[in-house]
Design goal:
5 helices
Length: 136
């Protein structure tokens, strides 16, 4: 059993799915809370995405792709790449949620979850092949 757990942990896709799930929960829970306290759809969406992006950088850097950055300076280039890639998916997420909720009349949480599936896949591709490629 210990070997199976170790083998699964050594698989970056498995780690990404786990920590991607954690990141998605940060995004969805913060969005839900912000909407429940009456915050406007797009503002709540942007804040929840930013919180998720910051959380995701830390866990992806440390646990998923296990980059070898040793100093703060080493993190600058991957962080800029990460923010750039997540900026692209942030636009997709904002647009997707707006489209599903405002234009199609879907429940805001359902629209957010559907959009997050697409964003999760794109974020993995960007992180794997664009962001965490240095210092390995």
């Amino acid at each position: 059993m210990k070997e199976l757990v170790k083998k699964l942990y050594n698989n970056s896709v498995v780690r990404y799915i786990f920590f991607g799930g954690c990141t998605t929960m940060v995004n969805l829970v913060s969005f839900y809370i912000l909407r429940k306290v009456g915050m406007e759809l797009n503002i709540a969406n942007i804040i929840s995405i930013v919180l998720a992006i910051l959380f995701a950088y830390v866990v992806n850097s440390l646990f998923v792709f296990q980059d070898k950055c040793e100093t703060l300076k080493d993190h600058i280039q991957p962080f800029i790449k990460f923010i750039s890639a997540r900026g692209v998916t942030m636009i997709i997420e904002i647009g997707g949620v707006w489209l599903f909720v405002e234009k199609m009349g879907m429940n805001d949480m359902v629209g957010k979850i559907i959009t997050n599936v697409v964003v999760l896949i794109l974020n993995y591709v960007f992180s794997k092949f664009f962001v965490f490629t240095t210092n390995k």
